[in-house]
Structure formats: structure tokens, C-alpha cells
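Hi U.,

Before I forget, here's the chain from the pilot set. I'm dumping it here mostly so it's searchable later in email.
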Amino acid sequence: MRQKILKAIDKNSKLTSKELASMLGMTEEIVDAELRAMEKESIICGYPTLINWDKADSERVTALIEVKVTPQRGEGFDKIAERIYKFQEVESVYLMSGGFDLTVIIDGKSMREVANFVSSKLAPMDSVLSTATHFVLKKYKEHGIELDNKKVDERMLVTP
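Structure:
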């Protein structure tokens, strides 16, 4: 039951309890109770809105920063990740496998602002060994949703 609710609201968090109940063949009361329980258990952590900022006349830049760190004894990567995600600029932090340890995603007003964040806040941290910054040039799909879904006219051409 929870998985069905989560899958439904993952793509559209605006669905009401009534709509969810109808879609999933449940009562509205059961859906409400499950949503409240999942919020309390921190399974549902929020209801963000996916915005295509390129179309919103907003100058923004998104950067993905690869970070190599030295894990702290007894705390591993968790304490370092926590220090990083507490910065206001940070949107997401992920522990990774492979050639680097953490991926930090930030949104800034300009490339200079991102560079200042990396050079003045992130790189000087004691545990940080190195960083590599990559700038997102264009977003095509985010959170499973196409951002620039051009409608293709699939009607057949009729000629005399």
C-alpha cells in the first residue's frame, strides 16, 4: 500500500488524498493516515516543486562537485557530509562509489558564485583532499520528468 502511494506522489505531489484514494482503490482516511505516518517516520521528507528555471527568466547555474575526502575516525563520511549539506548553497549531497567520495550539487546565481563557494567554503575544509567542479549546461530531464517536452504533431499529412 505504501509503495503505491509513494510511486503516485513521486511524480505528482499535488495529488489530493481523495484523488490518491480513487486511483489506488483505497479510502481517503487510509491514504491520509498513511501519508501522516510516512511523514512522521521521515519516509516523506517534503513536497518540492520541479521548476524549469530556464523558462522562468531566472539566471541560475547548477554545479556538480566531485569531492575526495578523508573519512573521520569513528564517524566515516557522515560528519563531513553533514558539515557540507548545512551550507545554504548546497542542494544535495551523495556518498558515491568510484573515483571520488561525495557528490555535492549546488545552485548559484553565477559561475563566479559557485567558484567562490568551492574556494572559500568547500576546499578549505580539513577533510577535503580535492574537488572537481562540473557545470550543468542544460537540463533535459529531472526527477523522471522531461523539462522541454516538445509536442510532436503525429497526424498524417493529407494531400489532394
